[in-house]
C-alpha cells in the first residue's frame, strides 16, 4: 500500500532539510517515539510506546538509509517495526524531498508499506486514515518548529544542534516534556467515527511532545533522521492497531 503526504513550510529548502536531519528535533515530533541506538551512520533503531486503554505497549523498529542526495534535498529510507510481545509487524519504504515553493518550501513524502498479523484484518481505507493522521500531525509539529525558529530577516544561519533552533529557542520551547504514548484505541475510534459520519466531524489531534534532551548529543552524528521518523511513524502506527486485537 502507498501513502502520499506533503506540507509547506515558510522557510528556505536548505534550512528545512537541515532541520529534518537533526534527529533530536525530528523524533520529538513522533508521538511516543525515542531513538534507541545508532548502529552505524546508515542504520538506526527506535522505540515507540502505544497506549491501549490502561496498558502501554512497546514496539521496536530499525531504519536504514537506502539513498540520500544532499544537493537535491532528497532521500530514501527503509524501515521495519515489530511488536515486542506479539506477532504484529510492519515494513515501510519512504521517499522524501524538499523543494522550493514561493517564499518557502514544500516537503513531499511517499511511503510504501506492508503489514502482517492481526492488523491486516482492518481494511485498507482505515489503515490509510490512521497513518495519514499520524503523519499529518507530525508534519504540523515540524512546520511549527521550523517556522518558529526562522529568522524574521530571512537569514541563513546554520542548523547547529546546540543553538539557533535548539535548546531554549522558540522552536523547541513547546517541546521539552517527555513524550506520551499514542492512544491507539482513541485514535482508531476517532478514525472509524469520522468514516461513519463522512469525515465531517472535528479532527482530533494527537499530543506532540518531545523526548528528554538526553539524545541531544546524537543529533550531529545522524543523517536523514526525518525519513527514519516518517517511515517508523507509519510502521508503528499500523503495528499499534495490532495491539487492540492483542489485548482484547
General description of the model:
The protein is built from five helices and eight strands, in the order βααββββββαβαα. By secondary structure, the protein is α+β, with helices and mostly antiparallel strands. It has a single domain, classed as START domain (Alpha-D-Glucose-1,6-Bisphosphate, Chain A, domain 4), CATH 3.30.530. It is globular, with a radius of gyration of 17 Å. The C terminus is likely disordered.
Keywords:
alpha+beta, 248 residues, globular, Alpha-D-Glucose-1,6-Bisphosphate, Chain A, domain 4, eight-stranded mixed beta sheet, 29% helix, single chain, disordered C terminus
What's the architecture in CATH terms?
2-Layer Sandwich
On the 0-100 scale, what is the average pLDDT? 63
CATH superfamily: START domain
Determine the N-to-C terminus distance: 26 Å
Radius of gyration: 17 Å
Unreliable segments (pLDDT under 50, ≥5 consecutive)?
A: 154-181, 201-231, 234-248
CATH class: Alpha Beta
CATH topology annotation: Alpha-D-Glucose-1,6-Bisphosphate, Chain A, domain 4
The best one-word shape is: globular
Strand and helix layout:
Elements: E1 2-9, H1 13-20, H2 23-26, E2 33-40, E3 43-52, E4 55-69, E5 74-83, E6 89-101, E7 104-116, H3 124-149, E8 182-183, H4 184-196, H5 225-246
Parallel strand pairs: 3-8
Antiparallel strand pairs: 1-7, 2-3, 3-4, 4-5, 5-6, 6-7
